[in-house]
Amino acid sequence: MAERGCPLEAVPLPAEVRESLAELELELSEGDITQKGYEKKRGKLLARYVPLAQGVDPSLQAETRIPGPSQATAPAPEQQKMRPSHARDERFRSDVHTEAVQAALAKYKERKMPMPSKRRSVLTHMAVEAYTPPDLHSAPPDVTTGLAQHQHTYCERPQLASMRGAPRGGSRSVLETAGGVPVSSRVSSKIQQLLNTLKKPKRPPLKEFFVDDLEEVLEVQQPDPGQPKPEGGQTAVLKGELLAVGSTWPPSLLATLQQWGTTQPKAPCLTALDTTGKAVYTLTYGKLWSRSLKLAYTLLNKLTSKNEPLLKPGDRVALVFPNSDPVMFTVAFYGCLLAELVPVPIEVPLTRKDAGSQQVGFLLGSCGVALALTTDACQKGLPKAQTGEVAAFKGWPPLTWLVIDGKHLTKPPKDWHPSAQDAGAGTAYIEYKTSKEGSTVGVAVSHASLLAQCQALTQACGYSEAETLTNVLDFKRDAGLWHGVLTSVMNRMHVVSIPYALMKANPLSWIQKVCAYKARAALVKSRDMHWSLLAQRGQRDVSLSSLRLLVVADGANPWSISSCDAFLNVFQARGLRPEVICPCASSPEALTVAIRRPPDLGGPPPRRAVLSMSCLSHGVIRLDAEEKLSVLTVQDVGQVMPGADVCVVKVEGTPYLCKTDEVGEICVNSSATATAYYGLLGITKNIFETVPVTAGGAPISDRPFTRTGLLGFIGPDNLVFVVGKLDGLMVVGVRRHNADDIVATALAVEPMKFVYRGRIAVFSVTVLHDDRIVLVAEQRPDASEEDSFQWMSRVLQAIDSIHQVGVYCLALVPANTLPKAPLGGIHVSETKQRFLEGMLHPCNVLMCPHTCVTNLPKPRQKQPEVGPASMVVGNLVAGKRIAQASGRELSHLEDSDQARKLLFLPDVLRWRASTTPEHLLFLLLSAKGTVTSTTTCIQLHKKAERVAAALMEKARLTTGAHVALVYPPGVDLIAAFYGCLYCGCVPVTVRPPHPQNLATTLPTVKMIVEVSKSACVLTTQAITRLLKSKEALAAVDVRTWPTILDTDDIPKKKVASIFRPPSPDMLAYLDFSVSTTGILAGVKMSHAATSALCRSIKLQCELYPSRQIAICLDPYCGLGFALWCLCSVYSGHQSVLVPPPELETNVSLWLWAVSQYKARVTFCSYSVMEMCARGLGAQTAVLRVRAVRAWREPRTSPSSRKPSRGAPPPAMKGVNLSCVRTCMVVAEERPRIALTQSFSKLFRDLGLPARAVSTTFGCRVNVAICLQGTAGPDPTTVYVDMRALRHDRVRLVERGSPHSLPLTESGKILPGVKVIIAHSETRGPLGDSHLGEVWVSSPHSATGYYTVYGEEGLHADHFSARLSFGDTQTVWARTGFLGFLRRTELTDASGERHDALYVVGSLDETLELRGMRYHPVDIETSVVRAHRSIAECAVFTWTNLLVVVVELDGLEQDALDLVALVTNVVLEEHHLVVGVVVIVDPGVIPINSRGEKQRMHLRDGFLADQLDPIYVAYNM
Fold first, then answer.
1. What are phi and psi of 68, to 5 degrees?
2. CA nearest 343: which of 366, 376, 377, 315?
3. What is the DSSP letter of 118?
4. 1098-1114, pLDDT tens digit by residue?
5. What is the mean pLDDT of residues 764-788?
6. Share of the chain residues as helix, strand and coil, in percent rounded to the nearest 5
7. What is the b/e burial string over 1154-1166, where b = at least 16 CB atoms within 10 angstroms of the residue's CB?
8. DSSP classification of residue 132
9. For residues 357, 360, 364 and 365, what is the CA-based torsion angle, rounded to 10 degrees?
10. DSSP assignment, residue 1322?
11. Which residue has the higher pLDDT, 889 or 285?
12. SS (HEC) of 1251-1269
């Protein structure tokens, strides 16, 4: 009690209080009472004995975590010294083992592991702040700059920017590394600890060699040449003593029952006890016989269905009886046998979702069970449906429930006799067995086997008539059934059955009953012996001298020896004789395999073996005489059963006999084994009809053997030793480990006060073609995060040291949440199922994939690059063309005079204003669908003139000055743009800051204004106020803004003359955008490039003044800006502008606008498409209403089709998309096939043509390279091998083949654009279907980057690259994207074969890991598929660690389920070990306006500790 922290030295406790405390401890350790309940009860017990300390209520003096000095130093009283320590489970106790664990842990003292981080809201009982102290020297100097404070209140994800050295807003103090790189202390110090743990590999390093991508073979672990090998001779078959033959054996068990029932009707057969230990009923043999007859008669004659008997002989019947009612079970069992029915005993289903309940239903269904027998009391306790009937359990067949209490049975006529008396080969009963995987099968035992088993047990145990047997085991199956229900009746014994509930209430009850009934035999498990040890203090009057046989049913468990030893140690003084303890080994298939005989029955003296655990893992037996630490001590389980032959065969492959020093599976040939798995012929043959062979291949017997599932060997004196079970076997690499051994090591790790002793499950899961060990334990509610984490770390180290195997995952779950087996203990297979499905809900997780996964493919070693010339020659030899393609020629397509005349956009606008002044160019929609503004050619011209006049007069700007346009999406932005061109200024469009999120968005605005050297900011009144507000002051220095000009109320003035550029190469505008890698990049667009861009788009999309297009894009950069501001003026078509922010209010606005204005061509971004798919996917029927009526209205000309301003919002119904010829997604990334396909399918019902959706492709150097347009072949899709892509190769495969990745072409190449695929390092041209960098040559490419830092030189080759071989004259722009060209079988408009461009991903974004190139999107796709709660995912690397950030769309307590699933899926599909898993709220992953993830910003935010994660797991 001292270690519980209570000062009890002064007051000796009475014996009954000590006993009650021991029982309480037991309940707590098994998880049967909550910590709170324990402390309350304990407080009450001790209230009278604990002196009141400083007026504290005694009930509050519960367990304290740190004992005070007096408690720590004062010696414990004598009684307490005797009491065994509760720090680990006695069942698994071995002092040698504990020493071994302590020694192993001593080696690891120096290593510190990074502790997982949890958000405060997830911590329900955290005692201290669980953060490691800041380590100022931990981060390698490659961390990017920190992210401004992230807000979670704002629904739109902000677009962020960073620039090396750019002034950042935000006042957060950030640590700096030696390289001057800002970094957060907490995250980086933890990652540094993680790197430190990974620096010292505990496994020998693997030999490295180059593996071709097509042969990306997993490493097969080679056997260690130094591993132990068996050296003994071949074992022989071990024959048991002969089964005594004579007239003494009855012809059948039922004949015996009839004999005792009629000749000895008063003899007691079975005594049932209640939970207080009182005998509630004693069943006599006469009663058993008469009741069984009544039941048999009722079953055969009184149950009908449609006037036919419900049952016929041989039918299966379920027996559903609680563990507390052995009497009714026995009556039901024998009643079925008498009626020639086959009983199938199962557990009572307590809820509709019991652990393993579905599998039991499968068993009942496969056995064809239609009737269930139960008692009145049990039936009342079953879950009920609304009709009052017993509820249908998940996976169960329809059952009729029959209550078999006396009043429901019919007495048979005098002349009625059951016909069943034989002992033939027919099935007598079916016992259920749950496999390692959780599947439940029925083991069929024949009448002959049942009789032979009873005879063999009678002979082996020396049972005699009228003996008393105390049975603690489950009487429905296994040894409890064989001894306590069957063999006992054969010998007219009296069984005293102890229910599980009584054992929990009073663990000494079985010993008290042995004493009270003078029982000669007892049937227990090592757990029952362990429990009684805890409770036996102060029991002076118990005596075990009457026992001649104490059968330990789980003696085959290697750790039962410690319970046997400890039990004998204590109870030898109470009359227990050493030779009485008889461990036995059994299995559902072979029934009893071996049992130790007492000396008076001719048994040899017991033996034990101390075996090397390391050798055992290789299947070799070596006695460890040197007292090494890593040993397993096992006891014999006695001799083979009478009448049985036993041999030991190899576990896998052909059943060769093992050598004498080799561990194998024990096989039995006997008339007393089970006969089959009911209804499962295939696995029956494997298990029940094994023919062992000698090393030469000769069968050892003409009779088949039954595999027992027990692993062991034959020792001296022909004694059987068992070292484990096949069900608990985990094969990791080439070595075998036993789950029980791992549990024992975990339990030996001190201190054990953080988890419940009896509530630990160990199992293996297959990840990457090998078994991985998982350990799950229940954590006590009072354990702090730090304590539990320390314990977990120590467990990992102990298992690694003692078993030389790594634990893949260690999880702690809250108290009482693991699925329980019917009679206590953990339902391991159900726990495993929950783990794999992400339903375990742990509160602490530690993954160690780095140490466990040693079979990854070899890292790729870079080979010397093949030169560009050799590459070209190789392609020529292989018959492959150089990968080069181009769009249509511009010169053939358009009247060049007109193009030359209107070379500049301002000229075009003036020309349109004079020739078609009232032609409508722009139409802006609000969220309600109303037109908020329209602009004709003349209106736009006049607005532009007013802006130009204001710039020259008010801002006093000169030609060439840069002007920032900070406007919301609308016509004002377009007018301001042309106003700048009219006065010779250079416009820079900037997204305005978000009023609810100034801290994050305003610094980006400020940075663009500064970087672009803008001399003036044009904006609206509302934004002007925002830029100068108090809130803005907190984010940036508002005093340093350039002149801010509000254009809402500028006077109507004309400019004297409109500026005409002296040269087409003069700068027209700057296009600033944040790349996906988080870098702010501005590109320079000349007047010539601007006109060429508009011309190409006009030709590709066939845009004319009579056309209408709908645009739902952000108008600030790239193709979105060009379509919004430039193309309508150039081509004269009408643009229906739908600002994307309006979709947050009305998600159907864009599709409604497309339908309402009959737009043939429409453009959107991925984020718009995703919003529509998510928000409208289920509402297509509502949108379709009135579609037919809407479509019948007479068509009108575009100009007359403008709704009046301020008209009431039309109902967003009647959406018909059949007008759409092409819907293009504007993107700078690999096409998202899954999204575009799901969008097409969802809106097919609204008339969207199947082939309408396509993608575009552009980048910083050229904003429009590909664009599907309105003519030409449909986009093609190919499937490539993802493994080949990692090696920078393209390998086309069939759809559905393993590792296949679908890629669709990014649209047709625009007129005037040439594309070539070049090697990114050698710059040589590549062949068709080869992966390389996409290079582009086009009149509308940008002319260069614009930056204040003078870094143009670094990136000059982005715009002026030349091939190193072949055509070395053409100037190309490098896109920075990997892709390939492939010539298809399709023909384009010119009759040439169509060349398709496939974009794979951005070079800057790729992750270089293990010598291979990974694309983040591929890993992210796998992760999102791993669990339904993962809403979004982003990956990045830091110091060679892969970091996976997942957004949790679910409850916070489910967050930790994702850690293992994410780690598993990345290992399985990408052969990568995840270093850190970060779980965050939805919306934390930053996304730009095009819907692209900003992974580098996410990385900055993570390293600066600004993500407010729910959980961060550092995989060891």
1. -70, 175
2. 315
3. E
4. 999 989 899 999 999 99
5. 89
6. 35, 25, 45
7. bbbbbbbbbbbbb
8. P
9. 70
10. T
11. 285
12. CCEEEEECCCCCCCCEECC
β 581-587/549-552 pair status: parallel
What would the two tokens of residue 510 be?
């079985």
Cβ contacts of residue 929 below 8 Å, gap of 6+?
A: 1146, 1149, 1152, 1153, 1156, 1209, 1210, 1212
Nearest-angstrom CA–CA distance, 1395 and 657: 65
Lowest-confidence segment of 131-140, 871-880, 1326-1335, 1352-1361 by average pLDDT: 131-140
CB of 1190 closer than 8 Å to CB of 1285:
no
What's the rounded Cα separation, in Å, for the pair 361 and 395?
A: 5
Tokens of 1102: 């066939």
- Whether the per-residue pLDDT at 423 is higher than 70: the answer is no
**Side-chain-facing half-sphere of 878: CA atoms under 13 Å:** 14
Query: 335 near 291, Cβ under 8 Å?
Result: yes
CB-based contact 819:827 (threshold 8 Å): yes
Three-class DSSP labels, 459-511? HHHCCCCCCEEEECCCCCCHHHHHHHHHHHHHCCCEEEECCHHHHHHCCCHHH
Per residue in 1040-1073, pLDDT (tens digit) is: 889 998 988 888 888 778 888 888 899 999 999 8
Is the CB of residue 119 less than 8 Å from the CB of residue 1509? yes
Q: What is the pLDDT of residue 33?
A: 72
Residue 1334 contacts by C-beta under 8 Å, 6 or more apart in sequence?
1265, 1315, 1317, 1375, 1377, 1378, 1379, 1397, 1399
Sign of CA dihedral 201, 207, 210, 216: negative
DSSP bridge pairs for 730: 737
pTM for the whole structure: 0.81
What DSSP element (H or E) covers 1012?
none
- For residues 926 and 1026, the answer to whether their CB atoms sit within 8 Å is no
Rounded to 5°, angle at Cα 1385 from 1383 and 1390: 85
Pick from 1082, 1068, 1198, 1065: nearest CA to 1126:
1068
Cα angle 1394-1399-1401, degrees, rounded to a multiple of 5? 175
Residue 447 CA to residue 428 CA, distance in Å, equals 5
CA end-to-end distance (rounded Å), the chain? 37
Q: Positive or negative CA dihedral for 576, 579, 580, 584?
A: positive
Pairing of strands 117-118, 608-612: unpaired
User: Residues 246, 330: contact at Cβ < 8 Å?
Assistant: no
DSSP-derived secondary structure letter, 401: E
Long-range contacts from 327-330, C-beta under 8 angstroms, 24+ separation: 327/270, 327/272, 327/281, 327/283, 328/375, 328/404, 328/405, 329/475, 329/476, 329/485, 330/269, 330/270, 330/283, 330/288, 330/475, 330/485
Cβ atoms within 10 Å, residue 108: 16
pLDDT at 60: 38
Looking at residue 1302, its amino acid is: P
Q: Taking CA 1061 as the corner, what is the angle to CA 972 and CA 992, rounded to the nearest 5 degrees?
A: 25
d(CA 806, CA 808): 6
For residue 103, give both structure tokens: 């020694």
Here the tokens at position 197 are: 């743990």
Cα 87 to Cα 101: distance, rounded to the nearest angstrom: 14
C-alpha 1436/C-alpha 896 separation (Å) is: 49
Residue type for 725, please?
A: K
851 vs 646, higher pLDDT: 646
Query: Is the previous residue joined to 716 through a cis bond, with omega within 30 degrees of 0?
Result: no
Task: Give me the count of residues in the chain.
Answer: 1516
Nearest of 1152, 1150, 1222, 1138 to residue 1184 by alpha carbon: 1152
Contacts of 1289 (CB under 8 A, 6+ apart): 213, 1330, 1331
108: its two tokens: 């690891």
